[in-house]
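Q: Got a minute? One more chain.
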Amino acid sequence: MAQTLLWERAITSNAKVEQMKKQNYDTVSGVNTCKENIANFEAEIAQLYTKIGLLECQIAD
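A: Always. Here it is, folded:
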């Protein structure tokens, strides 16, 4: 009886650990996706600033 109770607790604990591992992976994955998006937007912004500079030169001419 006591062994069965301990076994059930161990199974429950293992399930909780696996759930926490998945949550951690999902969180890290989400953070990495955000970092990639930020890098992409920063690159796009830099390109737009370059384009603005070129257009301002054309207007000045």
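A: The radius of gyration is 26 Å.
Q: Perfect, thanks.
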